[in-house]
Each structure stands twice: as C-alpha cells, then as structure tokens.
Amino acid sequence: MEVMRIFMVALVLALHGTETLSSVDHGPLAVDYYKESCPLVEDIVRRSVQTAVFKDPRMAASLLRLHFHDCFVMGCDGSVLLDSEGSIVSEKGAGPNVNSLRGFEVIDEIKYLLEEACPYTVSCADILAIAARDAVVLGGGPGWDVSLGRRDSMKASFSGANQLIPAPNSSLETLVANFQQHGLDVSDLVALSGSHTIGKARCLSFRQRAHDVSTQDHDPYKRYTSFRRILRSICPKSGKDNKSAPLDFTTPARFDNHYYLNILQGEGLLGSDDVLVTQDHGGEIKAQVWAYASNQHLFFAGFAKSMVKMGNINVLTGNDGEIRRNCRFLNS
Ligand code: HEM
Ligand SMILES: *[C@@H]1O[C@H](CO)[C@@H](O)[C@H](O)[C@H]1NC(C)=O
Ligand SMILES: *[C@@H]1O[C@H](CO)[C@@H](O)[C@H](O)[C@H]1NC(C)=O
C-alpha cells in the first residue's frame, strides 16, 4: 500500500513537472519592473555574481542562503543586510546568522555599481533575489524569471531572525509548521531543502546529528554508521565549532539533485535534511524526495517555482519602505 501510494504521488508530481514556469504567480511584482528605469540591472548583478563566485566558489551557496534568510524574517525586504545603528539591531548577530551568513561585501559591490548606473532605483531586496537566481545558475542549476519591484525595509528584526529561521535540529513537524507560517507548503519545503546541494555547514550545526545515538539505534539498516563516524571525526563532542563540512558530500559545488540521493542513503549533513526521509508525513514527502532523486528536471522545475514563491513573501511595494542607497543603512 505504502509503496503504491508513493508511486502514485510520484506520478502526479511528474505530471505537474510539465507545467511551464510562465504559469507561476509573481504576486504584486513584475519581471520587467526596471525595464525603463534600470535596463542593465540583471547584467550588472550577473557579472558581479560571476566574478565573486569565480574568486570563491562557495559564494554561490552563500548568496542563495542570504535571500532565504532575508525572506523568512518580515519578508523579502533586505532587512538581513542592515547593520546595527541607532535603533536598528542587526539580524546579522542572531543565532542562525552569526559567524555563518556570508556575501555582504558582494551585495555592497553590486549596490555600488547599481548606484552608479541608476541611482536611487534598485532595491537591496531585489538585488538579493536576482543574485540568488544567478548563483544557482552558475552552480549548474535552473534559471527562472525573477519578479522585481520589492522595496527595502526601514527596520530589522533580531528576535525574528532568532525565531523564524528554522534550526537544523528541528523535527519534520516543526519544519512543516515553520514553512507554513511563511506561506510555503510541504512541497516547497522539500524543493527548497534541495539548496543544500551546495555550500557548507559548521560543526556547530551538525554536532547533535553526529553524536545523537537515538536515531541510529532505531535504524534497522544501520545506514548511518560509517557516515556518522566521518561526521564525528570532523566534529568531536566539544571544540571545533567552526570546522565545516560540505552539505552535499558527493558533488559539493554542483547544483544538482544529489542532495535527494544523499538523504535517501542517510547521508544528509543536517538533522533537518535527514528528517525528510526518517520522519513520517503520510508518505507525501518521501514520494517527492524519490521523484527528485530520480529526475533532476523535476527537481529543477519544482525548485524554480518554489524560489519564486519564497521571493514573494511579504514584499514591500508602492510607498512602503524605501530604496536604500547603501544596503547596510537606512537613508536617513
Ligand atoms: C528547511 C529548513 C532549513 C534549515 C534548518 C537550514 C539550515 C541550515 C544550516 C544550519 C546551514 C549551515 C550554517 C552554518 O553552519 O554556518 C545551512 C546552510 C545553507 N542553507 Fe539552509 N536551511 C534550511 C533551508 C534552506 C533554504 C530554504 C535555502 C535556500 C533557499 C537554504 C540554503 C542554504 C545554503 C545554500 C547553505 C550553505 C551556505 C554557505 O555555504 O555559505 N537552506 N542551512
Ligand atoms: C568561529 O569563527 C568566528 C569568526 O568567523 C569567531 O568570531 C569565533 O570566535 C569562532 N568560534 C570558535 C568556537 O572558534
Ligand atoms: C536544538 O539545538 C539547540 C541549540 O543547540 C538546543 O538548545 C535545543 O535543545 C535542540 N533542540 C532539540 C529538539 O534537540
């Protein structure tokens, strides 16, 4: 029965995958928003991202994650980029971000070039959205049209960054509820988790998974044994918080569907990766993981669609917010 249901869900997903991206809902934003006011915006961002990733391949992952951490705290409004000043308490110091988020200098550089080309025009929130897409493309992943017209927030939320970004030791139930809170469904959770096909995590983020024996003891196949031994050697019980490991051990710098193959083999780095296949959600999640593991095109289509959806979370438009001149500070 279980197998049959997984098969049926996989089939439905496969059929959905043929849907074209033009049917994606872009919300209040528009793909050609800067067509008159800053026609070169996408070229400028793309070239800067290319240069940055050429110098440091991990930067592709870091830029993708910046957009995610922006969108999950008050919406995609550039709040993550603000430094502490005056009444602003920067999100950069919050638990999920401190000693971890990277790429701020790349965004500064892009903003500098855009202020030269078209001053007061392009928001920092839009830069994050375009850079995330370009980073995925550079890694070998799918492209998509980025809807634009976001404005930048006048505030940051330190407490929001601590509470709204999911922790790597979350249960599946907690992850599903967290995504739901942001208007994202179970299928978005599975697709967007595929981001962990690139980039790295620090020991601090996977120590609990490496050492927690309870799940290992309950795994009848003992699939975790050798993988966990490696994790424990990288990340002993104490110290070495900053030592990092690739999120995708098989193709660490390539944006592909190997993430799903890894987690099916018990080799997801984070607890939050592992729970997608070890904790139950009526077979629905596992079916999507199998579908993505066996069909990269399906993953790419689902990922692009979910990225557009994530990029629409609580965007500021019209007269809300402002277009920051410097992504780190409010205009006045
Ligand atoms: C499902 C819930 C998620 C959890 C619990 C989670 C957690 C984490 C953690 C703990 C790290 C490593 C941080 C460190 O140790 O420094 C990480 C890295 C990363 N995450 Fe996630 N993440 C999630 C979803 C996402 C989503 C939705 C995206 C993008 C759309 C994303 C993109 C990334 C990328 C690209 C990296 C590597 C960054 C780098 O190498 O600089 N993650 N994530
Ligand atoms: C980790 O690295 C950051 C700088 O990136 C540093 O401030 C922090 O003290 C380091 N933590 C440990 C435990 O080494
Ligand atoms: C997750 O990790 C945090 C910080 O290390 C810890 O305080 C918390 O108890 C852990 N939660 C679970 C469910 O293990």
Task: Explain this structure.
The chain is mainly α and 332 residues long. It is 49% helix and 2% strand. It contains 15 helices and 2 strands. The protein has helices at residues 2-16, 41-55, 59-71, 104-117, 124-138, 158-164, 172-181, 186-193, 203-211, 213-218, 225-234, 258-264, 271-278, 284-294, 296-310; strands at 200-202, 244-246. The protein has a two-stranded antiparallel ribbon with strand order 1-2. Helix 1 (2-16) packs across helix 14 (284-294) and helix 9 (203-211) packs across helix 11. Mean pLDDT is 92; it is low at 1-5 and 7-20. Bound molecules: protoporphyrin IX containing FE and 2-acetamido-2-deoxy-beta-D-glucopyranose (2 copies). Protoporphyrin IX containing FE binds at residues 58, 61-62, 64-65, 68, 100, 102, 166-168, 170, 175, 189, 192-193, 195-196, 198-202, 204-205, 247, 270, 272.
Which stretches of 5+ consecutive residues score pLDDT under 50?
A: 1-5, 7-20
The helix tally amounts to 15
Q: How far is it from the N-terminal to the C-terminal residue, by CA?
A: 62 Å
SSE string, helices as H and strands as E: HHHHHHHHEHHHEHHHH
Mean pLDDT: 92
Enumerate the strands of the largest sheet in spatial order, edge to edge or round the barrel. Answer: 1-2
Helix content range of the residues, please?
A: 40-55%
Largest pleated sheet:
2 strands, antiparallel
Radius of gyration: 20 Å
DSSP strand content? under 5%
Number of strands: 2
Unique ligands: protoporphyrin IX containing FE, 2-acetamido-2-deoxy-beta-D-glucopyranose
Kindly name the structural category.
mainly alpha
Form type:
globular
